[in-house]
Amino acid sequence: MSIKNNSYSTVTNIRFGSNELKDVWFNVNNMILPTISLTPPELNTRAGANVAIAADTAIYTDLSFEIIIDKDWEVFDYVYSYFLQGLNVESGKFSHSKKFELWAEIVDGEGKVKKKFNFHSCRLLEFTGFEMAPNSAEDEHHTMTITFNVMYYTVETRDLIHLYE
Predict the structure, then answer these.
(1) Residue in 145, 150, 108, 109 with CA at minimum distance from that of residue 129
(2) pLDDT tops 60 at residue 75
(3) Does the domain spanning 3-29+66-163 belong to CATH 2.30.110?
(4) Is the Cβ–Cβ distance between 147 and 64 less than 8 Å?
């Protein structure tokens, strides 16, 4: 399977993949980065006492990708079979804990990576459905959203490195 030959590859400048999915990446219409909330530690203080302390815990919300389905549905088949490996459909539980290291890249018109996001200890949360009709065009643009829980993420960019030198 050659996802990079996806018939819609010129539609987007965002792609995502995983180190577990060797040489495969997916075209993305939309990516929702996790929100990072910083929370202060809980303190047992006297009633009415104000204690100014910095936040010490970062909480990340979920990561979502709206991926583009190619005209031959190879993307859907690959994603569905890979991410649902080990799922017991009767109990709804996986036979083993499945975590992923994911990445997403923002590329320019020449295909050069401008920013790369590395997501760590990800767990699959949800596949969304998509709407189709008998009168849909043969080459209609279909997408599906995949949502992951993320432990944390890092950002790679050349521009930021120069800011701190």
Answers:
(1) 145
(2) yes
(3) yes
(4) yes
The sign one gets for the Cα dihedral 34, 122, 25, 67 is: negative
Tokens (6 digits) for 162: 């120069």
| Distance (Å, whole) CA 138 – CA 140 | 6
pTM, rounded to two decimals: 0.73
Domain layout of the chain by residue ranges: 3-29+66-163
Cα–Cα distance, 154 to 6 (Å, whole number): 28
Nearest CA to 150 among 120, 117, 116? Answer: 120
Residues facing residue 59 across a β-bridge: 37
CA 50 → CA 53, 55, 138, distances in Å?
Answer: 10, 15, 64
Q: Locate the DSSP E strands across 52-112.
A: 57-60, 63-69, 87-88, 93-94, 100-107
Return the half-sphere exposure (C-beta side, CA atoms, 13 A cut-off) of residue 24. 13
**CA 1 from centroid of its chain's CA atoms:** 21
What number of other Cβ atoms are within 10 A of residue 127's Cβ?
A: 15
Question: How far lies 82's CA from each of 10, 21, 66, 78, 124, in Å?
Answer: 25, 9, 17, 6, 11
Residue 6 has a pLDDT of: 40
Identify residue 80 by its one-letter amino acid code: Y
